[in-house]
Amino acid sequence: MDFGLSEEQELLQETVRGFVRGECPTPRLREIYDAGGFEPALWKGLAELGCAGLALPEAHGGAGLELLECALVAEALGAGAFPSPFLGHTLAGLALGLAGSEAQQRRWLPALASGDALATIALGERGERWLPEDWTARLAGGRLSGSKAFVPFGARADLLVVGTAGGGLALAERGASGLRCEPLDSLDRTQGVDLLHFAETPAEALPGGAAAAGRVVDAALVLLAADAFGAAGRMIELTRDYVLARKQFGQPLAQFQAVKHQLANLLTDTEPCRGLVWFAAHAFDHRPEEASKAAAIAKAHVTEVAMDVGRGAFELHGGIGFTWECDLQFWYKRALFDRQLFGAPDLHHDRNARLAGW
Amino acid sequence: MDLRHSPEHEAFRAEARAFLREAWPPRGEEAALPEERQHALFRERAVARGYLFREIPRRYGGSEQPSDAIRDAILLEEFAASGVPGSLPSVGPAMLAPTLLEWGSDSQKERFIPPTLRHEIRWCQGYSEPGAGSDLASLTSRAELAGGEWVIHGHKVWTSLAGEADWMFGLFRTEPDAPKHAGISYLLVPMKQPGVRVAPLRQMNGGAEFYEVTFDGARTAADNLLGQRGEGWKVSRSTLVHERKLIGDPNYIRRLFNGVVELARRSERGGRPALEDPGIRRRLSRLEGALLAQEYTNLRQLSASAKGEFMKVMTAMLVTKLHSTNLTQAITRLAVDLIGGEALVMPSDEEAQGYTIPKLTAGAWLSQSMFTIATSIAGGASNIQRNIIGERVLGLPRDLRPPR
Fold first, then answer.
1. Does residue A2 belong to any structural domain of this protein?
2. Window B:175-234, CB contacts with A under 8 Å
3. How many structural domains are present in chain A?
4. How many Cα atoms occupy the beta-carbon half-sphere of A340 within 13 Å?
């Protein structure tokens, strides 16, 4: 029995953490943020570390790793509020690996693994239609029609994995006829989202889509939980640094026991989430019968904790925390993204209750 | 990462389970023996198989097994699941015996450890005082050497098991002129003597599992001292390390939670099982999220312990008590909501018994909810936990303290 990370897993996470710290320290993050939130060089750097194809098969140029490694990277990226299309790209690759035909995989996976092509997932629809049974976009005769909402990097992606009515998956390419992108002014600019409209757009089904769609959603929930866990930890660090530096009544805020206890409470709720994320990621590859429930509860619990941490972090920052100038906003918005995309906690608590057999 | 036990550990679990099925409850002629004798027979057999007192050398009556955190955890689970009496291991074998191994002289070890393991000497722990709770080192119960004996005056409180104990291990001020912590010694004191008075403390739930102990000229031999004079604080820290072995049922919170799910199944809301109520379902799911987070954190700690990598789980170790306390309180709060108006009725004496998994009676749940409130204090008050987390994990400054 070993519920811990291997040396290789620790090294991977530490490498990505170091890369994020080195390439995107907070002043740089702020510059990128103010310029729109996407910096191709950062994504290229992450891809050079192998992070564009972590869970893709080695035969197609990927690293052949599992969702746990992806989650460890997501945590490190969340901790840095790192602007990158990692989430959508990883999930799209996973979908292709799970459900794509031999030809589809041969055509796309090597370019996705190297980062030469950028992919994303276009699954959810407005009206809180996040789950395969909710999707309404129609694929018929190789033509796709419908709208997809809150697609991460939808305007930039070369390849789209689209959720279709009946819970299937389809592939569409950037620039295809009838595909219109409606850019949104994203709250979290580090993971910008767009609306996509398809009108008789050429698309091909992923043959294993019906079986894989639920798995792709599970993976999304795990990665969002991991990202939120990273963001929560960083908000605690930022707040610790702030209360140590800021003085009122002639002493650092940290000297006030009320402040110390509030911060201790946030950490007490956050640290146990680590195991919840690890288990959900591990279950995805090794305990398929438990995977959906583990993903649902991880997403619901961890993103809720992360928002509580955000609320407490603001309170401890005082008025400065509410300003655009304060860095805390990057992580608060990141945590809010992780919480809202693919459904807020109640949706997954209700699913968890069903999956528990209650 | 691999959540399956190794074949060796699975085999170990199967053997332990088979042994427990065989060894408890007593059958045939043994079923007619007095309870004490039944327990003694069980202990002898469990020691012979290497399942009990694993860190204690054979010459003192232990089973002297190689250290293995996973085997220890398997045994805790199997013992808890088997219905073997919860007094195994109790305070003496679990806490004092390892402390004696670390700090005792050879003659102290020989004199005290074997009868402690055989439950011929039963122990209680004398730490807290009416004036010394979280600030334990301010304790004032004092012991003075006179005629080759320590003569003790003072008052201990929250002393579990004092009613039945033969001896107390505890902290007493022996060096009144030394600084606070340096003036304390760790003494072993016989309880059955004229200068010791033991009185039960009645709790708000009606139970009485704790005692207060008054010393008025009680005596113990000069050499019933563990460590040197003034080293008592240090000795007590190593006893504290062993306290976790006392935590009887590692799956207590899980059982508590499963009990509440069952309670929701049996309770009615609008003529339907409460478990079908969307609000109840969400509350249960939120609790399960925190419960799973706690369980996987425990697993992380177990794995790290097995590999000796304590630093990797230091934060988890330090937040666990507070997180579990909050969680058990939230679980029993839901139970109280489910029993509804029944919570207006005082639990019976039987329902008020102990920190155990309640039978599914309303009074037992109500009593349990009051017990979980007490866990905010027992074993380290929550606000002290918050100080420790703030200072040791987050690196926040220590509280301003008055001079010692």
1. no
2. none
3. 3
4. 18
Quick one: which of A227, A312, A205 has its CA closest to A267?
A312
Per-residue pLDDT tens listing for chain A (358 residues): 999 999 999 999 999 999 999 999 999 999 999 999 999 999 999 999 999 999 999 999 999 999 999 999 999 999 999 999 999 999 999 999 999 999 999 999 999 999 999 999 999 999 999 999 999 999 999 999 999 999 999 999 999 999 999 999 999 999 999 999 999 999 999 999 999 999 999 999 999 999 999 999 999 999 999 999 999 999 999 999 999 999 999 999 999 999 999 999 999 999 999 999 999 999 999 999 999 999 999 999 999 999 999 999 999 999 999 999 999 999 999 999 999 999 999 999 999 999 999 9
| Count of CB pairs separated by less than 8 Å, A with B | 164
Give the bridge partners for A2, in sequence order.
Answer: B2
Tokens of B175: 């060096």
* Catalytic residue set of B: 243
Determine the distance in angstroms separating the CA of A108 from the nearest CA of chain B, rounded to an integer. Answer: 31
Bridge-based pairing state of the strands A143-152 and A138-140: antiparallel
Residues A223 and A284 in one domain: yes
What is the span of the domain harbouring residue A100? 7-114
In a domain, A12, yes or no: yes
B268-327 residues touching A, CB cutoff 8 A? 275, 278, 281-282, 284-286, 288-290, 292-297, 299-300, 302-304, 306-307, 309, 312, 315-316, 319-320, 322-323, 326
Are the Cβ atoms of B6 and A1 closer than 8 angstroms?
A: yes
Residues A98, A33 share a domain? yes
- The HSE-up count of residue A256 (CA atoms within 13 Å, CB side) is 15
- In this structure, are A245 and A319 located in the same domain? yes
Contact yes or no for A229/A167 (Cβ under 8 A): no
A217 and A348 housed in the same domain: yes
- Reported ipTM: 0.97
Distance CA A345, CA A351 (A): 10
CATH code for the domain of A136: 2.40.110.10
